[in-house]
């Protein structure tokens, strides 16, 4: 994607859990470089969040998904980030070797012990597991002010 149609202040991600394992991708750039995070990305100007998330999953990890409920929102001064629970439909997950260089199905029991998984990702995985209603959830991050609703 060349970015000409990208809305840089709106992004989406999805938590995909299958058989007690969560799908994570190792990021290759930016603040998340080297970290395992849930797949997602920026919305194009002509896309709805659910459509963008399906596209991002195809582009980044080569999976078809079904977008389910919204489980979290992070708001910052100039942008927002919507996170959904997603269900696996088809495909064999692998890295795109551009935005990520590794894709793993990590057992849920191992998530909290990984130092290479950001706090925000851990909190969002827990939101997907626990199906909590929206409340403010504090997290350690680089940008301030910040707010995660989940």
- Note the beta-strand portion: 35-45%
How does CATH name the architecture? Alpha-Beta Complex
Secondary structure tally: strands: 8
Average pLDDT value?
Answer: 90
CATH superfamily: Nucleoside Triphosphate Pyrophosphohydrolase
Largest sheet: 8 strands, mixed
What is the end-to-end distance? 30 Å
Gross morphology is: globular
Features:
alpha+beta, Nucleoside Triphosphate Pyrophosphohydrolase, 8 strands, 19% helix, globular
Would you give an account of this structure?
With 150 residues, the protein is of the alpha+beta class. It has a single domain, classed as Nucleoside Triphosphate Pyrophosphohydrolase, CATH 3.90.79.10. It is built from 3 helices and 8 strands, in the order E-E-E-E-H-E-E-E-H-H-E. Strands 1, 2, 3, 4, 5, 6, 7 and 8 form an 8-stranded mixed beta sheet that branches. A hairpin with a 2-residue loop joins strand 1 and strand 2. The protein starts with 5 loop residues before the first strand and ends with a strand. The model has no long low-confidence stretch (mean pLDDT 90).
């Amino acid at each position: 994607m060349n970015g000409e149609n990208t809305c840089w202040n709106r992004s989406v991600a999805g938590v995909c859990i299958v058989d007690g394992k969560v799908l994570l991708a190792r990021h290759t750039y930016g603040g998340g470089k080297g970290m395992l995070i849930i797949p997602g990305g920026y919305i194009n100007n002509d896309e709805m969040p659910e459509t963008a998330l399906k596209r991002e999953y195809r582009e980044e990890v080569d999976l078809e998904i079904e977008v389910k409920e919204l489980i979290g929102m992070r708001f910052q001064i100039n942008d927002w980030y919507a996170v959904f629970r997603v269900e696996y439909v088809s495909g064999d997950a692998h890295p795109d070797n551009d935005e990520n260089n590794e894709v793993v199905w990590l057992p849920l029991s191992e998530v909290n012990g990984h130092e290479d998984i950001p706090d925000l990702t851990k909190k969002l995985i827990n939101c997907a597991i626990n199906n909590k209603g929206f409340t403010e959830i504090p997290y350690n991050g680089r940008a301030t002010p910040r707010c995660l609703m989940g």
